[in-house]
Each structure stands twice: as structure tokens, then as C-alpha cells.
Specification:
By secondary structure, the protein is mostly helical. Helix content is 54%, strand content 10%. The longest helix has 15 residues, at 18-32.
Amino acid sequence: MRKITLALCAAGLFVLAPGIAAADGAAAFKKNCATCHGADGKGETAMGKKMKIAPLAGLAEDKIKAAIDGGVKREKDGVKQEMKPMKDKLGADYDAVVAFVKGLK
């Protein structure tokens, strides 16, 4: 499917439907982010609770990108938080993950 999509995009014949991007973003989020943030982005995982991660729902796109691009280093309620930059790890899935996180409720 990915080869067909790339070929069609290269030929200018394919318009990516929002549902496809969301599905890819959800899969990439699950693979790279859900261990801490949870599949729903609420941070209600063991690591999320330990690190006192705030829910991702409602974050503006610039805040999502800033966190992915530069990571997060701060202290919240006496707990040091660190998330390494994820942009390179996400690679081609970057925009899809941003779109997925923007859609969290």
C-alpha cells in the first residue's frame, strides 16, 4: 500500500484523505508515544503518572511541534520531566502524529 501511495503521490494522482493520515498517525503515536502518554494521550500510564504528564488533548499545533522537535525538560510538582526530541525518530510520520495529537479529545 505504501509503495502504491508513494507512486501515486509522485505522479500527482493521489490526494491523501484525512482518515488515512489519522490512521497512520495513530499507529505511529501508539508505537512511539503511548508508553508514556497512553493510547488516548491522557498520560494515565504507569510512566505518565510517575512523570505527572499532562493530557495532550487541546494542545495547539505549535506546542505539539515544539515538544516533538525539542523535547521537554521541566520540573512539575517536584518531579523532573524529560522527553527527548522525537522529530528524527518519527521521521515521515511526524505530520501524521501531529495531526493525530491535534485530534485528541
